[in-house]
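Quick one: structure for this chain?
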Amino acid sequence: MRYLILAGLLTCVSRINCINFPFEATALEEKDIGNFSAIAFADRSTASPVYDGPECKVYPGAAAWPLEAEWTRLNSTIDGALLKPVPAAAVCYDGPYKNTNQCNFLLRNTSSSRFYINDPLTVLAMWPEGDTCYATANTAGLNCTQGGWPSYVVNVTTVKQIQAAVNFARNKNLRLIVKNTGHDFFGRSTGFGSISIWTHWLKQFEFLPEYSIGEYRGMAARVGAGLESWELFSMMARHNMTVLVAGPYTVGAYGGWITGGGHSALASTYGMGADQVLSLDVVTADGRFVTADANQNKDLFFALRGGGGSTYGIVTSAIVKAHPPTPVLGSSLSFSVQPAANAPANATGPFWAAFDAYHKFGLDIVDNGGTAYSSVSRIAPQSGGNAPSGASFSATIEMPVLMSRDTQAATAP
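Got it. Here's what it folds into:
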């Protein structure tokens, strides 16, 4: 299905684009390609709705894997932005990268630093790459391998670098992935034998007091794809306005978050993150750099707003709606049950009745412009006797705009 989507987009995308930031002015041109056909643009006239290429991507060690000279030439074309990193925890294992001091830092200090956020490989969780090289003080009998991490990473600072990498991956039949901050629960920011487009440092911002496009008239902001939520909070304070961002501070606000939908504390008030987008600058599967908005590339504009990260193209920047300052106040709720030994099987009944009541109450929360996040977990049964398992429930309720007393009233039983 994805091949059909990409082939269709290759035939319908307009080349008109309007750059938001200087890094987008540096784009790949025919003169940059020369006789280096590996980075040539795709020919839209040959695009087919039916994919008839190889079933699998080329992987390291395969006969068709690019030669070292080709990787070197790609690196030269993109101004030295091509990295070949090893897993961060390689410093803990015997081998050429072992460094006891750096390993101790990983084990003791990374939780209070931005080391992993700023690492070109690291993602939210280890499982997507196979957990093949984790930080540990005891590595006896263990090995560190590249696992599901990409083979190469492009440390993006210009659109040209993205275009060249996209073309290289397509023409060489390599797996291509995109990583901003790596907060992807589906593991799409990793991939064995892949070339990774790392957009983390595209952090430019510009506030627009007045902006109009289509039917929209109002405040807006130009935003680079690499901006994180915490960086946007400071911009909101500086310009006395609100833009929608993800709740966790280190999530990239304008990459996979908006292309995946983008839920936040303000979703019931202003809509999803995808609803905020007025314009997108994007590198498409053929390597072209285009703008998608209500006036041009409309199908692409529709697809990118919630169609899934890395599916239709690589977003470099966006123009998004800005709203009046909107404070968010929160309230928490929790309850649990732990049946005693030999308690009846229905001892947890009141707990689940409360659980159902909370979810019915969720309609009132949303109607008041709020959102809520909840979780339930199992509690192991008490030892001795025949006791059923217990359960614990917790929820965080967020209410925009309302004053504290109104929030308390809206969340009262």
